[in-house]
């Protein structure tokens, strides 16, 4: 059909809708109404019947129209007068889908609109009108009548021909209306309830004042109470002035002021800091050593350093008048570094007990917010002092022993860098005037003994590490673990499981079996767990009355029953029996460990494949190893054509990331073993980095590596010559059972590590 084209700039007319519009329809009985946006016509409009037309009081043409149905505009052409456009219209009549999906959407639409009407306070007329509409297309078009639906949404609705899809769009638009109305309703309710609450609180405060007057009480009692507490706290002069200033503010504003609770919290924290409370030190090196020996087996180097620490403090205190004092001398920050379960935290408690001081532990693991150390400023809601001030409050003294646990796991993000705040805490030149952001007064931390713990040195920030004195906890030998189990772990687990010492007995052989077959760790934490399982089995028998023998002898059969099959196996003999496998030594966050480095060659492009979650340093070590072997092939007796293949170096346990500058010697040995067909001796473990010239460079963590080799059953260790002096740190019992070979070059490593070449061996066939 051909209709007069009437563009609408500010309105959208839907089918069944009657509207009076400022438009000129001439003498036409039907017109095509089409929305226009930014001068552009849409494609879908409404065919409308002209009910009435005329002019307004101002002479503007107006017409009353009734929308009939949708239409799609086709080609437009000018009319006879040249000013009026006519357009070919493809008329669209809504279908009547009667499927379950459409009916479900229609029900949802009605429910959403009724909820909107309930929020808006409809008198029922609109709801009645809505219930009278049965056709889904007409039902969806009612969204176009809503005044608060944006024109973009109405236009989208008009241009949707499919009835079911149009109904879905209508539900979406109405849900947006409902969400907005719900937010507005909630805000209005919150404002009204807030006003009612303030009014109620006002009347309650007035009643409270009257009650206090009747009882003879007054706010002045609260002020007097705070004055007495401030006087008793023994604050420094500057702090007392700040406290008095805040108290006067509280007095002026009254207890009913909104700020009164914040001021009272601040005063409570100022009073809670133990400004003048001190523990009396027991500076006796002999007593300190006795306490440490009673609480811990082994760790002689650690105990010696702590005893020296106490002895120096004793002499400085006794000779304070004779010797010029350096305020930084007491600022030594002992940092205990070692694998988990080696007793770092518990030895901190022993230090506090030996000094007669209070002990507080602060866990820094995963800390990212600088305010956790320095506190939040009082301008923030819910502000609190930092962990240092809270530790002093918990200790009740100004000179406790504070253990900063897991200092290597401190992070940094947009909230600040906690390690930077720790610099002020740990630096003896600054910590006498530490300023917490919440208290905003200087707190003297110079009398605090700070002890830090860490698993690894690499992740401690360098400026922080510079202020620390490192004490290494390198783990325990089997004999030390046996002594710890007999003297500490078994008695403690006996108590924890409700047993009496005379009710159970555990032989040394049984303890050795648990240590060697069920645990592989530098510390004793897992060992204590396994012993706990073993003793819980005995407790169950005694409690159930199934075993009347006393004492119960816990033998290997009881170990298997309680702990299951053997969990730790020695596999170095089997692994290195094949050429191309060497045994390296490494240090991880859990202590020392052995690494089997495997190498193989295959047909393919020349290159090097590295697997096993290797870091950049270990990848470089592997490339250096291959380059060294290729450049020295003649001395090693390896034909050139053996290198026209692809090499693959793998370190098992690929799910565990590995990195560090100490695997070069083991990687080079594995490649030479592969290419010469000479297996690596199964008794040998090695550590050391290699240069392109074949020099073996020194490494760190030798003690932990040697202990891991000893625990794995190795009897020989190849190490860099420059690490010879570090052997003094290895326990004597381990040194007696093992042979050590300090070397300068990789040639010495190969001579010591590889089995002798068999006479007439075909290198080509072996490689």
Can you give a write-up of this model?
The structure is a single chain. Helix 25 (732-737) links the parallel strand 24 and strand 25 (739-743). Helix 1 (100-120) runs parallel beside helix 5 and helix 18 (525-544) packs across helix 19. 43% of the residues lie in helices and 19% in strands. The protein is extended and about 120 Å long. The chain is α/β, with parallel strands linked by helices. Mean pLDDT is 84; it is low at 759-767. The strands form 7 sheets. A 5-stranded mixed beta barrel has the order 1-3-5-6-7. The chain has 27 helices and 25 strands. The chain folds into 5 domains: 2-92, Roll (Archaeosine Trna-guanine Transglycosylase, Chain: A, domain 4); 219-272; 285-472, P-loop containing nucleotide triphosphate hydrolases (Rossmann fold); 478-544 and 552-563, Helicase, Ruva Protein, domain 3, CATH 1.10.8; 572-766, Ribosomal Protein S5, domain 2 (2-Layer Sandwich), CATH 3.30.230. The longest helix has 53 residues, at 163-215.
Rg (C-alpha, Å): 42 Å
Side-by-side strand order of the widest sheet: 1-3-5-6-7
CATH class of the largest domain: Alpha Beta
Count of strand segments: 25
**Gross CATH architecture of the largest domain:** 2-Layer Sandwich
Structural class, judged by helices and strands? alpha/beta
Assembly form of the protein: single chain
- Overall structural domain count: 5
Which features characterize this protein?
alpha/beta, Archaeosine Trna-guanine Transglycosylase, Chain: A, domain 4, Rossmann fold, 5 domains, five-stranded mixed β-barrel, five-stranded parallel sheet, 19% strand, extended
């Amino acid at each position: 059909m051909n209709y007069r084209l009437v563009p609408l700039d500010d309105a959208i007319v839907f089918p069944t809708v009657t509207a009076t519009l400022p438009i000129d329809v001439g003498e036409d009985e039907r017109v095509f109404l089409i929305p226009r946006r930014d001068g552009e016509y849409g494609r879908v409009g409404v065919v409308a019947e002209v009910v009435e037309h005329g002019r307004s009081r101002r002479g503007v043409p107006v017409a009353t129209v009734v929308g009939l149905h949708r239409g799609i505009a086709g080609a437009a052409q000018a009319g006879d007068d040249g000013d009026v456009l006519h357009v070919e219209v493809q008329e669209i009549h809504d279908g009547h889908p009667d499927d379950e999906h459409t009916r479900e959407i229609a029900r949802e639409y009605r429910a959403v609109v009724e909820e909107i009407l309930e929020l808006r306070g409809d008198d029922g007329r609109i709801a009645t009108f809505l219930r009278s509409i049965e056709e889904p297309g007409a039902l969806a078009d009612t969204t176009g009548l809503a005044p608060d639906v944006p024109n973009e949404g109405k236009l989208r609705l008009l241009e949707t021909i499919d009835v079911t899809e149009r109904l879905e769009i209508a539900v979406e638009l109405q849900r947006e209306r409902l969400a907005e109305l719900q937010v507005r309703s909630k805000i209005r309710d919150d404002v009204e309830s807030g006003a009612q609450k303030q009014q109620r609180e006002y009347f309650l405060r007035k009643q409270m004042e009257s009650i206090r007057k009747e009882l003879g009480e007054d706010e002045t009692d609260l002020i007097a109470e705070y004055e007495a507490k401030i006087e008793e706290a023994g604050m420094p002069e500057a702090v007392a002035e700040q406290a008095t200033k805040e108290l006067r503010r509280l007095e002026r504003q009254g207890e009913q002021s909104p700020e009164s609770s914040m001021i009272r919290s601040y005063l409570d924290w100022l009073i809670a800091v133990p400004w003048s409370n001190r523990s009396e030190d027991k500076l006796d090196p002999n007593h300190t050593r006795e306490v440490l020996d009673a609480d811990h087996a082994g760790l002689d180097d650690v105990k010696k350093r702590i005893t020296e620490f106490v002895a120096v403090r004793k002499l400085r205190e006794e000779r304070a008048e004779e010797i010029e004092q350096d305020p930084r001398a007491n600022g030594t920050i002992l940092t205990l570094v070692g694998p988990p379960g080696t007793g770092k935290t518990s030895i901190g408690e022993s230090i506090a007990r030996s000094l007669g001081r209070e002990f507080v532990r602060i866990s820094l693991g995963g800390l990212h917010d600088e305010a956790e150390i320095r506190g939040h400023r009082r301008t923030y809601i819910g502000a609190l002092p930092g962990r240092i001030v809270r530790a002093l409050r918990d200790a009740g003294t100004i000179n406790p022993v504070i253990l900063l646990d897991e200092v290597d796991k401190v992070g940094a993000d947009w909230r600040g860098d906690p390690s930077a705040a720790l610099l002020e805490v740990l630096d003896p030149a600054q910590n006498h005037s530490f300023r917490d952001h919440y208290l905003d007064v200087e707190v003297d931390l110079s009398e605090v003994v700070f002890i830090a713990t860490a698993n690894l040195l690499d992740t401690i920030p360098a400026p922080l590490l510079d202020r620390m004195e490192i004490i290494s906890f390198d783990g325990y030998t089997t004999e030390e673990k046996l002594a710890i189990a007999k003297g500490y772990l078994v008695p403690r687990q006996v108590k924890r499981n409700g047993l009496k010492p005379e009710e159970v007995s555990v032989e040394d052989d049984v303890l050795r079996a648990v240590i060697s077959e069920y645990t592989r760790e530098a510390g004793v934490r897992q060992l204590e767990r396994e012993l706990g399982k073993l003793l819980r089995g005995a407790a169950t028998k005694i409690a159930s009355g199934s075993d009347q023998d006393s004492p119960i002898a816990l033998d290997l059969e009881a170990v298997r029953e309680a702990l299951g099959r053997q969990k730790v196996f020695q596999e170095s003999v089997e692994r290195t029996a094949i050429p191309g496998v060497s045994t390296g030594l490494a240090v991880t966050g859990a202590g020392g460990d052995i690494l089997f480095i495997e190498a193989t060659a295959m047909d393919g492009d020349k290159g090097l494949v590295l697997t096993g979650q290797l870091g950049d340093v270990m990848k470089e070590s592997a490339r250096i190893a291959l380059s060294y072997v290729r450049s020295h092939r003649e001395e090693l007796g390896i034909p050139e054509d053996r290198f026209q293949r692809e090499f693959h170096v793998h370190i098992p346990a690929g799910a565990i990331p590995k990195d560090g500058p100490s695997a070069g010697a083991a990687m080079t040995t594995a490649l030479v073993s592969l290419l010469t067909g000479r297996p690596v001796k199964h008794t040998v473990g090695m550590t050391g980095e290699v240069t392109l010239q074949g020099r073996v460079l020194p490494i760190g963590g030798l003690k932990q590596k040697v202990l891991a080799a000893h625990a794995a059953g190795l009897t020989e260790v190849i190490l860099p010559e420059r690490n010879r002096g570090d052997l003094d740190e290895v326990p004597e019992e381990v040194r007696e059972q093992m042979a050590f070979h300090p070397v300068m070059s990789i040639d010495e490593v190969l001579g010591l590590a590889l089995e002798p070449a068999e006479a007439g061996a075909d290198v080509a066939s072996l490689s």
